[in-house]
Structure formats: structure tokens, C-alpha cells
Amino acid sequence: MANSIVRYTGADPNGETNVMSKITVITAGLMSLAEMPKADSYTLRLWAKAAVARTVTAYIGNTPFTMAITTAWKVFKFTATAAADSTCELYLPAGTYYVWHPMLERSTKASDYRQAPEDVQENIDTAAENAVTEANTYTNYVLQDYVTIEDMHSEIRQTQEEISMSVSKQITRSMTYAEVQAGNALTAANNTTDNKLLNYVTTTKYTSDFKILSDKITSAVTATETLATYVDGDFYNQITNEYSSAITQTANSITSTVSKTYATITTVNGIATRVTTAESTISQQANQIALRVTKAGLVSEINASSGQITMSSNRFVINSTYFTLAANGTVTASKTSGIAAGETITLTVTPADPDDGDCSLSSISVKNGEAEVALTNYTFTMPAANVTVKAVFDKITYIGIKKPSRAKKVGDIVFNDG
């Protein structure tokens, strides 16, 4: 950890709350206060105290002065001659020090404390900002400061092989205002939050592209929105939203995609970053339609063809008063939960009996992930992991013969426990 000096708000020698310097010294050493051109005499005046009593040495040029700093405020005054260009310094042992109203002047006598010109200007600027803030509080922010920058661009390109068009627009807005709470807004903000003055910079960028080829047409639209927040000039928080949509059309397919990426970067006692991406895609062909939605690692898919519809998702929710799921057959297990590795499980296969024809079992399999689990006479041994049972039923078509009675129906195969 390095030595540091920061602005600190605490009780001054008069017992009033004021801003002062807090100096934390890890490794003892010299701290420069000011450069001193050659002159007859300089006088150093300052108030100081320490967390634990310390002996500090002040140097005006080459002349040392001993400062016995205690835990209570004490004023120190020293005068010396600078025979050559030199510096005014403090030699500080390890410890924590508080310094208020330090002043070095070209004089043989210490005068009353007065602020440096740059400090006076800073106070003037602060007072002006506070006046605008209070005015905004009671005038619905009529006096907000806005800076707007716009950058727009459009382009059309044409060659023998393609025609393409693009349009882009970027808008940057910056505004400064005080967060206001109900009641006495300024007082409440000063008392309850360090973020009483926030600076916002908003950037929005739009881009659209359209391209025509002999065998393909593509179009895309993107938007990026960034909101950055700064406190006292330091980066505090940034939120970025990126949106994108695209359509690709060929002679035998249409694919459309919509995506969103949400990213946050926050600096509060460290740096934390979070990125979330969501995307949906629809792919359409003559014999198939596929839908896919992804977000934060979760995927849901629906694939529809003339022969079947396949759905996969982390969770299925059906809200309906009347709901029927028709299938060509069912498979039930002698046990579905609380199964120990090594147990024998028996499957019961029941083909359906639709109005337009019977069904029969075409294939059945049991898998542990991608590994096949041995199945004998619809019975298998449970491995030390979950398994998936998949069965395919086909309809039976009767040509030129009478449909058999229910008692002779193909596919009525039942295996019971035991």
C-alpha cells in the first residue's frame, strides 16, 4: 500500500465541519508542499493533528523546524530565508495526519489564512453549480445543461454483382443535474448520498444495411445504446444495450434473427462486469420451419416438418382450460423416481388406436446421455445416472384385408413388474 493524500471532511480547529487534507504515510519520507524561488524570507503556517502523536520535521529550504504534532489541533508557524531556489517540505514518519489551511507566503510574518486564487475560483464555480441545481429543483430542470452531437451517414454502392445501401446515425447527449429527493432536495442529497452530482453521457447509434445479390437478399438493422455515469469526474457505471435484427432470403429459404446484448460495467469498490445475450431465430424452408430462442445459456427450440414436430426446452408451461396431446402410443415405466443404480426397470408399451388405423411400436431405446443402455424384452438395469427413453410408433395401414379385432391387435405388448 502506497502513501496517499486525500480530501477529508471532518471537524476543523473551530469545531465546524470542513474539508481538509488527510495524509496516510506507510513509508516515512519527504512530502513537498511548494517550490520556493530565491527570496529573502518565507513563512509557513498550518494547522495539524495526527491519529497518534508524532514528531514531524518541516523544511523551508535547508532550514529544519521540529513540529510536535499531537492528537489535538495545533497551529505551527516557521520563518526562514531561501538563499537559493528550493522547496518547502515535510518529513513525515509512518502514521495518519490531518492538515488544515496550510499557507506558504513570501514574508517574515504569517498573515491570516486566505485561499489560493484557484481555490477561490473553484468555490465560485461550486456556488454557481449549486445555484443552478437549486433552480432546477424548483423549475423542473429547466436549467439543465445539454450537449448533443449528431453524426449521420448514408451510402449506396452498385457493382455488376450487387447493389447495397447503408444508413447510419449516431447521437451523443450529455447532461448534468443533481439527483433530487422529496422535501428539501439539496439538503437530503448532501446528507444521504455521495452521488449528489452525477454526469450522464448517452450515446445512441443506429445502422441499417440492405444488400441485393443475384441469389440472395439480406437486410439488417442494428442499434447500440450506451449510458455512462460519472461521479466527481470518475467513472462509476456504464450500461450498454445492443439490438440487432437480420433477414436473409434465398430461393429456397428465409432466415430471420433478432438479438439483444445487455452489458453492465460498474466501479464501486472494485470492478464488476455482467453480459447477458438473448437471440431468436426463425428459419423457413419448403419442408421445415425451425424456431430457436437462446438467453443466458438456456435454449428452446421448435422444429416442424410434415412428419413431426420436435420441441426442446428447459421448461414447458401450458396454460389452457382444454388441452389434449395426441400420440401414436405411450411408454410407462415400473418406477420413475427414487431409483437406485442396479435396479431393474420394466417398460410398458401401449400403442394407440386412432380412428383411422391402429399403431405399432417401430423402435424403442434407452440412453444415458449419448451412451446406449442395454434393453432386453423391455427391461433394463438402471445405471448410476438419469436415462432417457425414446419410442417411435407407426400407423398400420390395412390394404385389401379386414381390420383385425381389438383382441388380435398388433402391438398390445404389456410387461408388468416382477
Overview in brief:
By secondary structure, this protein is mainly β. The protein is about 5% helix and about 60% strand.
Q: Strand-and-helix sequence, N→C?
A: EEEEEEEEEHEEHEEEEEEEEEEEEEE
> What does the main sheet amount to?
10 strands, antiparallel
Indicate the mean pLDDT: 76
Low-confidence stretches: 176-184, 192-197, 405-418
* Number of H- or I-type helical stretches: 2
Structure notes:
The chain has 2 helices and 25 strands. With 418 residues, it is mostly beta strands. A 10-stranded antiparallel β-sheet has the order 10-11-12-13-14-15-16-17-18-19. Strands 1-2-9-4-7 form a 5-stranded antiparallel β-sheet, with no helix packed on it. The protein starts with a strand and ends in a 23-residue tail after the last strand. Residues 176-184, 192-197 and 405-418 have low confidence and may be disordered.
What labels describe this entry?
disordered C terminus; five-stranded antiparallel sheet; 418 residues; 2 helices; 58% strand
List the helices and strands and how they pair.
Layout: E1 4-11, E2 17-25, E3 29-36, E4 39-50, E5 54-60, E6 63-69, E7 74-82, E8 86-92, E9 95-105, H1 117-138, E10 145-158, E11 162-178, H2 185-192, E12 197-213, E13 217-231, E14 234-249, E15 253-267, E16 271-285, E17 288-295, E18 298-305, E19 309-312, E20 329-333, E21 344-351, E22 359-368, E23 371-372, E24 379-381, E25 388-395
Antiparallel strand pairs: 1-2, 2-9, 3-8, 4-7, 4-9, 5-6, 5-8, 10-11, 11-12, 12-13, 13-14, 14-15, 15-16, 16-17, 17-18, 18-19, 20-21, 21-24, 22-23, 22-25
